Amino acid sequence: MGFRNIFIENPTKISNKLNQLVILQRETFTIPIDDINSIIIDNKTCSITSSTLAKCSENNVAVFFCNDKHIPCSILLPYENYYYKLPILKSQFKMGNRLKGRLWQKIIKSKIQNQANNLSGNDYKELIVLKKSVTEYDNTYCEANAARIYFKSLFGDNFNRRDDDNLVNGSLNYGYAIVRGIICRCISACGLEPSLAIFHHNKLNAFNLSDDLIEPFRGLIDNWIINRCLSKKTIDKDEILKILFCDIKINGNYQSLSNAVKIFVNSYKECCISSSPSKLLLPNEIKLREHEYE
């Protein structure tokens, strides 16, 4: 898997030659496709050749396309043959309600804990109480109650997560979309069926599972954005994108974001195969600096 994340916001022609990504602007740049983790295209005048998109898919490069609000709205993912696809699909179909309920309980507990880590005082204590109260399938709505306390504590009583024109919401949504795309790619690469989820069941959503599995990362993404990305009057895309280079703690070790997502998604796959929630490995900390490659 590559380690470079390419962000393109100026008019650009993108092609490939000799397994190199060729970026033509006022100058020409070339980057080995093997080194690339993701490409984010945020300019309507950009053009990219079909052979380049195919080459990116072959090398498991996630290609994002942004909308008028500069938020990623679609992603190109590899449609590759996975040698273990059918057995994994069968294991997903066979997941019982008890297993799904216990997995969702662990995911929501992790989400609330990671949100609580961004708070202090009584608000922190309230979220910890809610975390301990989460049941299978979160039938007592601890996640929703935690969110109400969490966002008011961080951004004030008048804050509304549905206000798309708000700078904070725009920044959070941008960060969520980027990480969700990385999760989508990993789900596809490891042979899971992305529409088969635990909690989300939207018939029009091909990636319900991604919306389940992003939940433990939300508090970590919030931490990054709160501490690094809200100093400007507009969405600081450059700073938000650096989350792709951050360190996430999972299973007792710090990993790059891509590796942490891979470990998490693969652990979910093992839960499906073994019919046991005990194998789920959850992220629980983020370093507020970029990952250092040796």
UniProtKB/TrEMBL annotation:
Major enzyme class: hydrolase
Record: residues binding Mn(2+): 143, 200, 215
Swiss-Prot/TrEMBL GO biological process terms: defense response to virus; maintenance of CRISPR repeat elements
Pfam family, one: Cas_Cas1
Top-level taxonomic group: Bacteria
EC nos: 3.1.-.-
GO MF: DNA binding; DNA endonuclease activity; hydrolase activity; metal ion binding
Cofactor(s) demanded: Mg(2+); Mn(2+)
Record's keyword terms, sorted: Antiviral defense, DNA-binding, Endonuclease, Hydrolase, Magnesium, Manganese, Metal-binding, Nuclease
Job description of the protein: CRISPR (clustered regularly interspaced short palindromic repeat), is an adaptive immune system that provides protection against mobile genetic elements (viruses, transposable elements and conjugative plasmids). CRISPR clusters contain spacers, sequences complementary to antecedent mobile elements, and target invading nucleic acids. CRISPR clusters are transcribed and processed into CRISPR RNA (crRNA). Acts as a dsDNA endonuclease. Involved in the integration of spacer DNA into the CRISPR cassette.
Family: Belongs to the CRISPR-associated endonuclease Cas1 family.
Quaternary structure (record): Homodimer, forms a heterotetramer with a Cas2 homodimer.
Protein's UniProt name: CRISPR-associated endonuclease Cas1
Taxon lineage: Bacteria, Bacillati, Bacillota, Bacilli, Lactobacillales
